[in-house]
Amino acid sequence: MKLLEVIKSLSNETRLNILGWLKDPFDHFPEEELSNYTPALGVCVSDIAQKAGMSVPTVSDYLKTMSNAEILIATRQGQWTYYKRNEKAIQELATMIKENL
After folding, report:
1. Which are the contacts of 37, defined by CB distance < 8 A and separation ≥ 6?
2. SS3 for 54?
3. DSSP letter string over 12-51?
4. What is the pTM of this model?
5. Largest pairwise CA distance in the chain
6. Domain locations along the chain
7. What is the pLDDT of residue 30?
8. What digits encode the pLDDT tens for the residues 31-81?
9. 11 three-state secondary structure
10. Residue 3: pLDDT above 70?
11. What CATH class is the domain 3-100?
């Protein structure tokens, strides 16, 4: 894990919010939006964009940045892309911060 890349990927309030929302999607997204939600896939980009009040392209860019930093895991299914947290990477980040900063 590249610490600087991860920190840069989270250096935006909306990206931090997204990471928090994905921690427990049922607490942050309306049930009707999560009708197709499965923990194995995550939450659809369009649902995240709606929650953020932003365009799908902007949120897609944010999610791609976070995915490239390995904080999120992207799963493509047909025309849809779903995102979920990479809990292992998040734990590694917490350990790195605790031990090195």
Report:
1. 25, 29, 43
2. coil
3. SHHHHHHHHHHHSHHHHS-GGGGTT-BTTTBEEHHHHHHH
4. 0.87
5. 42
6. 3-100
7. 77
8. 776 666 677 789 999 999 999 999 999 999 999 999 999 999 999 988 889
9. coil
10. yes
11. mainly alpha
